[in-house]
Design brief:
Helix 1 crosses helix 4. This protein has a domain of 105 residues: P-loop containing nucleotide triphosphate hydrolases (Rossmann fold). 23% of the residues lie in helices and 20% in strands. The strands form three sheets. It has a three-stranded parallel sheet, with no helix packed on it. Strands 1-4 form a two-stranded parallel sheet. A two-stranded antiparallel ribbon has the order 2-3. With 158 residues, it is α/β, with parallel strands linked by helices.
């Protein structure tokens, strides 16, 4: 969906429901502009500014990788970092070939941005005339049921 349509909010609500059902979940957020994860003055920032091509921040609790790219990595390459997970939710990546669920917010658009067969469902409170399932954004359990069914996964992981 478009900016401020509710994509991040939906993902925030899907994750706990999937985790409650026993699935290991990861996310990938696509951003079209440069972004900073590091804080100016911190050691890892200083390493990167000194010319390190890759800086990894590691602790017993978390790891972060900062790598300058000459071209954007395809989603398929990024997913390889997450192979131990059951489900990976993405935000963005409209051009990728993977199945998509689009959030439609009547304030911004009444038509989906995705016009091809990769669009498998829409999330909206509006009535829409599409040949794919529509879910109310408040019906998180139904959305998760649909995702798991589409992926041919059990409704709950043992």
């Amino acid at each position: 969906g478009r900016s401020n349509s509710g994509k991040t909010t939906l993902i925030e609500r899907l994750i706990p429901e999937l985790k409650k059902r026993g699935f290991r979940v990861g996310t990938v957020k696509h951003h079209r502009r440069p972004f900073e994860m590091d804080l100016p003055g911190k050691d890892s920032w200083r390493h990167k500014n000194a010319g390190a091509e890759v800086t990894i921040i590691s602790s017993p609790f978390r790891i972060g990788i900062i790598k300058e790219l000459s071209k954007e990595l395809p989603l398929e390459s990024i997913i390889r970092f997450m192979e131990e997970l059951d489900i990976i939710l993405t935000e963005g990546y409209k051009e990728e070939k993977y199945p998509k669920i689009e959030v439609l917010n009547h304030k911004f658009s009444k038509e989906p941005m995705i016009k091809d067969e990769s669009l498998i469902a829409v999330i909206t409170e509006m009535e829409v005339d599409l040949k794919i399932p529509r879910f109310n954004p408040e019906r998180i359990e139904e959305i998760v049921d649909f995702i798991l069914s589409f992926l041919r996964l059990p409704m709950k992981r043992e």
